Amino acid sequence: MRRVRCAAAALASALLLTGCAQSVDPIERLGKKAAEGVRPHAVPDRSYRHWGLPRPLARTPLHPARRLTRQPGAHPPPVVDRVPTPDRVVFLTYDDGAEQDPRFVAMVRELRLPVSVFLTDSVAGPGYGHFARLRALGAGIGNHTVDHRAPAGLPYAGQRAEICGQQDRLHARLGVRPRLFRPPYGSYDATTLRAAADCGISAVVLWRAALTPAGLAYTHGPRRLRPGDIVLVGPDESAGPSLWKRTARVLRRVQEQGLTVGRLEDYL
Predict the structure, then answer these.
(1) Residue 42 domain-assigned?
(2) Would you place residue 28 in the very low, low, confident or very high pLDDT band (cuts 50, 70, 90)?
(3) In b/e form, how buried is each residue of 27-56, taking b as 16+ CB within 10 angstroms?
(4) N or C: which end of the chain has fewer CB within 10 A?
């Protein structure tokens, strides 16, 4: 009888050990494979589908084209609505700072989406924390004046106060003095360029394409996106789609035309 009990105990121990061997944690198995030099299959990033895109955004070139702008303070700074570049990139820009959509921040983070935001203090001022989060994700911060007044026709002192004043506010709130300036409504004159240069601006940025409820509208040239185009995904004045949905709409058009998105500050 004693021999039978010992044999049964030995059999139970063997079965227990076998069961443990068959139920090794899958994470542990992956660790063992890595230790043995076997690389586990990479999990593909499907986040682009979450944002309504048919495929991932192509990565931008590692060495963008030579910068177009002059040194800050040069007279006059160039006025650009597109960047001459052979790279198949366009540039997404956003104005004012009224729309502070947290899902847009998530979109920028998950897609690693390069964007540039031109901020007006009287509009964005209460929510600079939102733009600090975007800046931490690599977004460019541009100047869009203190009070969003159309610059053309204003005296030099008034234009300088609008531009330099916003430089000071952005430095105080976000720690940046932008090189790029977008005049409200695209309005500027020779005085604007002089004031912008005196405030340390190296380029005045307009746009060649802008998103409207009817689709992309173009200020001049071909009615399609071209490499180097600066695109304005402007504030939505109506109760229309949210900012991230409008951005996804533009991104789909970008991909349809065989382009991707670049970081404007790398090219200007």
Answers:
(1) no
(2) very low
(3) eeeeeeeeeeeeeeeeeeeeebeebebeeb
(4) N
Query: For 75-112, how does the pLDDT look when each residue is reduced to its tens digit (9 = 90+)?
Result: 899 999 999 998 999 999 999 999 999 999 999 999 99
Q: Is 132 exposed, middle or buried (0-12, 13-18, 19+ CB in 10 A)?
A: middle
pLDDT tens per residue across span 14-26: 433 334 333 444 3
Residue span of the structural domain in which 10 resides: 2-35
pLDDT band at 238 (very low <50, low <70, confident <90, very high): low
9 and 95 assigned to the same domain: no
The per-residue pLDDT for range 129-179, each reduced to its tens digit, is 999 999 999 999 999 999 999 999 999 999 999 999 999 999 999 999 999
Neighbour tally for 66: CB within 10 Å: 8
- Residue 40 lies inside a defined structural domain of this protein: no
Strand 203-205 versus strand 79-80 pairing type: parallel
Compute the residue count for the chain: 268
Same domain, residue pair 100 and 224: yes
Tell me if 177 sits within 8 A of 140, measured CB to CB: no
